[in-house]
Amino acid sequence: MMIAQQELLAGESSSGAGGEALDFLLGRPGVRAPHSGGTLIEHLLAVHDKLKVWGARDALCRAGLYHSVYGTDNFRQQTVSMSERPAVSAVIGEEAEKLAYGFCMLNTRSFLAEIEADLEASGGQLRDSDRFDAASKLDLLHIFMANWLEQLPRMRAMQRSMHVGLFRRVKPLLLPLAMEEIEAAFGFDVIPSRRLAVTPVVTGNSGAGEISILDDFVPKHLRDGLTALTERNIWRYGWKASPTQTAHHFWHSHFAGDNEEAEASCEFELQDRPLMAPVLALWQHVRDNLAPGHIPVRVYANGHTFGSDGHAHTDSERPGHFTSIYYAHPEWKTNWGGETLFFDPSGEDVVKAVFPRPGRLVHFPGNILHAARSPSRDCGALRAVIVVKTFCPALV
Questions:
Q1: CA 192 to CA 230: how far, in whole Å?
Q2: Which one, out of 22, 34, 84, 153, has a CA that is 20 to 30 A from the CA of 224?
Q3: What is the pLDDT of residues 45-75, one digit of tens each?
């Protein structure tokens, strides 16, 4: 525990209630229990500090310090007994204790659903209900956001991507610095920098194609959603990149479309499927910012582990066909290999090697010979890519 945090609490109010509040907690063995990569007391202090930095009033900050001491629907451990509510009120104040108790008693799913319903019914505002008035809901929402954001760096992508749509909608209701932190974490309104490198490559039939490599192109919140999808049980083993690949296949998950030679849109197959929402968003982002006039003809994911290389192949020899490969794994280290290789038409020389940096997108004509190399022996992770194959009628 940092001395600065103790000093912050000790000076929280003129009555010294902050110091008493901390001392009360430190006398409980349960506050040293493991919690989200650290200890419970570290988490409680960090939630308090986050609310304080946002400019929340003292009572709300103290509620944040005690936000899970009675146990919650996700953290079942009771650090303080319910019978001690009067003692807690004495050290943090009645208003703060009532908020902390209310947060502990929340069914998170029901509470967030109620927030969603409020926003839908009242044009983006919270409403009074039988259990909470609108002001209390907003207080609890701030505690929820501070609690969530404090743990966000330690979450897996699947958890990071939960509630993202709600966070975007509630952002205008929150304290200004809370709004800024949400935006920094998820990048809802940030225009991607589209850092772009382009390599001209001679193709097998006519002229040259361009391999476009885009970093920082896909928004943060969408990156989490795409990574979360690859962490689900979506994979089937046995896929191959070309007819020459008779052994050592790799993992695959089909999303939409029949084959890459098709010239009809398969977008409708991605619509109205909650699991496919991030894939649909990726395709629409590519269409709007990289490939206007294109339609998707096939969409899927490939997964490679050590020893599961893909053979060299072209995706389509027909004009107007393109491929976008998005690297969806959450991390990739220098010695893990897994590059996408691009070859000259003869297949005898590599003209471009693209390192599978997380969040990177590669866009190229379908007639460029290429192959996925498997991760190295050092890599224990899945090389996960989402592939969108497109057709542009205007280029035929």
A1: 22
A2: 34
A3: 999 999 999 999 999 999 999 999 998 888 8
